[in-house]
Amino acid sequence: MIIIKKITFNEICEVWKKYLPNMSLEPNSAMNCMKQLILDENHQYIQTDTYDLENQKFTPTFWGAFDNEKLIGVNSGHMTLDRMYRSRGLYVNKDYRGRGIGQKLLMKTTSQGYHENAIAIWSYPKHDSWSTYGYVGFRQSGHTFNFEWEQSGESFNTKSVVVLDEEALYQLDTPQHQTP
Description:
Layout: E1 2-7, H1 9-19, E2 36-39, E3 45-48, E4 61-67, E5 70-78, E6 84-92, H2 101-115, E7 120-123, H3 130-135, E8 150-152, E9 155-157, E10 160-163, H4 166-171, E11 177-178
Parallel strand pairs: 2-11, 6-7
Antiparallel strand pairs: 1-4, 2-3, 4-5, 5-6, 7-10, 8-9
């Protein structure tokens, strides 16, 4: 029987090191969900990712999926300054894929975000895992966001969101415009 339970950073970090070589080995990420619009030297607006080290001050939660005592899947999450809960580091052992374990880990993370009063849950999934994210309600576009697939190392990723409070998300002042 597969069970999902809280684990420690050390436990999840070992999985990330072994199976997610591009994963930042920190408990939290500084990355923000919404992009920023910046006016470039050609007077064209370009979208850029934004980062805030304050996001790393929130307490993260780490989840593990276990088959008896064997750790077979992981995910983590933490709040960010804009009350958007970040889901990161989803991995399921290849021998256990196709059984809904990734979906259960994402639902557990989404529940934690809801418990912490987030307005949305966001992630940055790879293209080959998109069906898992889409199944549990992650979207690439909505009232205040429209994310594109983008090259990230050797894979394609997109930001995506599960909206918990549409009105609060709409009220976020994003994307922000800045001039150089």
